[in-house]
Specification:
- The chain is built from 9 helices and 8 strands.
- By secondary structure, it is of the alpha+beta class.
- The chain has 3 domains: 55 residues; 81 residues, no CATH class; 44 residues.
- The strands form 3 sheets. It has a 4-stranded antiparallel β-sheet with strand order 1-2-3-4. The protein has a two-stranded antiparallel ribbon with strand order 5-6.
- A hairpin with a 4-residue loop joins strand 2 and strand 3.
- Helix 7 crosses helix 8.
- The chain starts with 11 loop residues before the first strand and ends with a helix.
- The relative contact order is 0.06.
Length: 213
C-alpha cells in the first residue's frame, strides 16, 4: 500500500465492505470493495467515505436494480393506458428530442416533481378519477402538469381546450366545426383564410374565394 494511502480495510458503507488496497490510477488510490451480493468493484476511498458520511446505501448496483424491479411489481400497471399517458407526459415535457417538445417543454410546460418521481405518485393523485377512454388534460393550458391543474376529460373537451383552438362567434372553432358538420382542420383553414363566420359551413372551395394568397 502506498505510504500516503489511508487504510480503510473493513470499512463498511451501505452494502459494501472495503477489502484491500488495489493501487492507483495515477491520480487517486483505488480500493477493492465487496458488495453483500459477492460482486467486487474498485472505488476511490475518498468518494467511498463521502458516501458513508452522507448515509448513502451504496451497493454494486444490485440494490438499485432490485428497487426498480420492486416498483414495477408494486404497481403492476406497465400495460395500463394511464401508464402510457404518464410516460408520454414526461417525454414531451422533459425530452427535447420528442416531436411534441416545442409545444410543451419547449414553451415552459413542466411536470411537478412529485409526478416525475414515480408513476405511483401520479396514479395516487389521478387514479381515483380515471375512466377508460378519457384523456389527461390541463385546465389552464399555459400551466404545468400538477394535481391541481389536471383532470381526465373526453377527447371533445380536450379539443376545446387545446392551444390551437380559437374563439369565434361566441363559441370555439372546434364546437363550430361540429355544429356545421365540417372537420376541425377545415374550420381552422377557413378561419385563417378570412372566410366570414356566416359562410364557414359552405362548400370546400369557399376558402379559395376568400384567401388573400
Amino acid at each position: 500500500m502506498h505510504h500516503r494511502a489511508k487504510d480503510i480495510t473493513g470499512l463498511r458503507v451501505g452494502y459494501l465492505t472495503a477489502l484491500r488496497y488495489h493501487g492507483s490510477d495515477g491520480k487517486h488510490s483505488l480500493w477493492a470493495v465487496r458488495c453483500d451480493c459477492g460482486v467486487e468493484k474498485l472505488m476511490d476511498p475518498s468518494e467511498y467515505k463521502r458516501q458513508g458520511a452522507r448515509g448513502i446505501q451504496a451497493s454494486c448496483g444490485c440494490k438499485r436494480r432490485e428497487t426498480i424491479g420492486a416498483r414495477k411489481i408494486t404497481h403492476g400497471m406497465t400495460k395500463h393506458p394511464a401508464y402510457a399517458v404518464w410516460r408520454s407526459m414526461l417525454a414531451r415535457c422533459l425530452n427535447p428530442q420528442h416531436k411534441a417538445w416545442p409545444r410543451y417543454g419547449g414553451r415552459g410546460i413542466e411536470v411537478c416533481d412529485r409526478w416525475q418521481e414515480s408513476f405511483e405518485n401520479f396514479w395516487a393523485d389521478m387514479g381515483p378519477t380515471y375512466q377508460s377512454g378519457l384523456s389527461l388534460d390541463r385546465e389552464e393550458n399555459n400551466a404545468g402538469y400538477t394535481p391541481l391543474n389536471c383532470r381526465w376529460v373526453t377527447d371533445k373537451v380536450q379539443a376545446n381546450n387545446t392551444r390551437v383552438n380559437v374563439a369565434v362567434a361566441g363559441t370555439t372553432a372546434a364546437l363550430l366545426a361540429e355544429q356545421l358538420g365540417v372537420k376541425r382542420s377545415t374550420m381552422y383553414y377557413r378561419l385563417s383564410a378570412g372566410v366570414p363566420v356566416e359562410r364557414l359551413g359552405e362548400a370546400p372551395d369557399v376558402s379559395r374565394r376568400f384567401s388573400t394568397s
